[in-house]
Amino acid sequence: MIELMPHRCFPSPVNPSVKELDECDLANSKRIKQWMGNRYNSANYYTEVERNALAHLLPLLLCGEQSAQLVFNNEINRLCHSEVEDIQTRIKILKEVEAEEFIHDSALQLVQSELPLVAGINDIQRQAKRFYLKLGRVDTYCEHFIRIAILDTCVTQIMHEFEHSKLGPGHPFARLCGLIKKDEAKHVYVAKHHAEELGATKAMFIGEHKMVVNRLYELLIGQEVHFTQLGVHLDKLFERLEDRWA
Length: 246
Hints:
Blueprint: H1 27-36, H2 48-80, H3 88-112, H4 121-135, H5 141-163, H6 172-197, H7 202-220, H8 224-229, H9 234-241
Helix pairs in contact: 1-3, 1-6, 2-3, 2-4, 3-6, 4-7, 5-6, 5-7
C-alpha cells in the first residue's frame, strides 16, 4: 500500500519575505513564474519513466528548498533584532534569497502535484528531513552558513546536471532546473559572504566541506537509479565536488 506523503517537509515561514519584495528585485523568479504558467510544463507531458523517477526525487529537492526558506527567514529575524550597523542591505539580500527559495518550492510543488505516488515516498522525505536537521546542528551561525554555502554549491551542480542531462535542453524539467541553477549560484555567494561577515575563514570552509558533501552523497545515493534514469550520474558529479573549497 502506498502511503500518502505529507504536504511539506518543513513548514512555511510565518512571515515569508516574498510578500515584501517588489517583482523587479526577483527578475529570475519572474521567469520561473512564466514557466509555471505554461501548460506544456505539466508533468503530463513527461514520459512514464521520467514521471516515476521524478516522483522519487522531488521530495529530496523540495525538502532542501523548504529548509532553506526557514534558515534564511530565521536569520533575517535574528538580524532585525541585532544592533549591527548598516544591517539593512544585508537583510534585503537575505530576503531575496528566501523569496527565491519560495518560488523554487512553488514550481517544484507544481510538478510534484501531477506525479504518481510511489512506494516508500514518506521514507525518502524522512531521510531528507533528517539530513537537513543534522546539518543545522551547529554551535554558531557562522558554521551554519558555511554549511549552507557548501550545500548550495552542490545544489547548483545538481541543477546543472539536470539541465544538461539526457532529458534534452527543451525538456520542461531541464528548463526549470536551469532557472533554479541561476538562483542557487547567487545563493552560494550570498551564504559565503554572510558566513565571512560572521567570522568564517577559508580553513573553516575546507574543514566543513567533506562532511557536508559526504552526508549529501549518502542521502542521494539511495535514489541513484532514479538520477541515472534522468541522465544524472552521482559518482561523476561528486568527484567534481571533491575539491570545490580547497
